[in-house]
Amino acid sequence: MNKATRKAVIAGNWKMNKTPSETTALINEMKPLVAGADCDVVLCVPYIDIPAAVAAAEGSNIKIGAENVHFKASGAYTGEVSVDMLKESGVEYVVIGHSERRQYFGETDQTVNLRTLAAVNGGLKAIVCVGETLEQRELGYTETLLKYQTKMALTNVTAEQLKNVIIAYEPVWAIGTGVTATADQADEGNGYVRAAIAEAYGAEVAETVTVQYGGSMNAGNAAELVSKVNVDGGLIGGASLKAADFSVIVKAASEG
Ligand code: PEP
Fold first, then answer.
1. Using the 8-state DSSP alphabet, how is residue 131 labeled?
2. Whether the CB of 214 sits within 6 Å of ligand 1
C-alpha cells in the first residue's frame, strides 16, 4: 500500500457466525493480540452481537461494524435496521453490498448506492464491496465490471463523503472458497477500482481512498497481498473467526 497517502484497514466479516457470548470471548482473545497495530482494526458482526462486541472492544483499538444497513431512516420495513440504530449502538462501520447479499438477498447496484448514501449521510463509515464472478472474469469483463460497480456505488457521494468510504475488491470466486487471488490479481483489481475513483473524483482524491482486498485472505498470504501498492488492507471472512490468524493479518498490514 501507499502509506504516504492512506492507512490500511483490516476488517473482519463474521457473516452468520458467533453468538453474543462467543463474541465476548473472541474479542477478549483478540484484544491483546492486535493492540498497538499500525492499521485500523474493525470487526463487522451480526446485528445481535453488536452490544456484546461494543462492550468487549471498549477501550481497545478494535472498532465495531455491522454487516448491512437499511437505507430508510425508519418505517414499515420488518426485519431491517437503520443507520441511527447502529450509531446509537456504538457501531462505526458497515459492510455494504457484500457478494453474499448480492447473491442471496437481492442486493443490486442501486440498493448498494442507496445504502452507501444513507451510511455516509448518517455518519457511518461504509465498506462497499465490489467484485466479479469467475464467469465475468473469464469473459474478460473484470475491469469494466469493477469500474461500473464502483461508480454506481458512489453515485451522488461527494468527495468529502468519500473520506468515509472504503472499497473492498472481493472477487466472488475467491470468497470462502480457499482460492485466493494472486497478489498481482488483487493489485490489478484494486487498481481498476482506484482508476474508477480517479475518473469520477480525480487522481489526487483516488490516491487517498482505502481499497481493501477480500477473498480467502489468511495468515499465510496476507503479507504478500498487502505488500502490493494498491492493496490497503483486507476484508477478512473465515480467518477473522480465529484470533491468532486474524492478529497475524493485522501484523502484516501494520508492517506492509
Ligand atoms: C468476506 O466474507 O468478505 C470474505 C472475504 O470471506 P473469506 O475471507 O472467508 O473468503
1. -
2. yes
Q: Is the pTM of this model over 0.70?
A: yes
Is-catalytic flag, 170? Answer: yes
Considering Cα of 200, then 205, then 207, then 211, what sign does the dihedral take? negative
Q: Over the range 37-59, which residues count as b (16 or more CB within 10 Å of their CB) and which as e?
A: bebbbbbbbbbebbebbbebbee
Burial class (CB in 10 A: 0-12, 13-18, 19+), 234: buried
pLDDT score of 76 more than 80: yes
> Distance from the CA of 74 to the center of ligand 1, in angstroms?
30
* 98 has catalytic annotation: yes
Burial degree of 61 (CB within 10 A; 0-12, 13-18, 19+): middle
* pLDDT confidence of residue 232: 97
- Kindly tell me if the per-residue pLDDT of 126 is higher than 80: yes
Decide: 215 in ligand 1 pocket, CB within 6 A: yes
Amino acid letter, residue 64: I
In degrees and rounded to multiples of 5, residue 10 shows phi and psi of: -105, 115
- Mutation pick for ligand 1 pocket among 9, 10, 13 (CB with most ligand atoms within 8 Å): 13
Give yes or no for a contact between 206 and 195, defined as CB atoms under 8 angstroms apart. yes
Write the pLDDT tens digit of every residue in 228-251: 999 999 999 999 999 999 999 999
Residue closest via CA to ligand 1's atom 7 equals 237
201, containing H or E segment: helix 183-201
Calpha distance 123→210 (Å, rounded): 17
Catalytic residue of the set 98, 100, 107, 132:
98
- Residue ranges with strand state E in 108-206: 125-130, 165-169
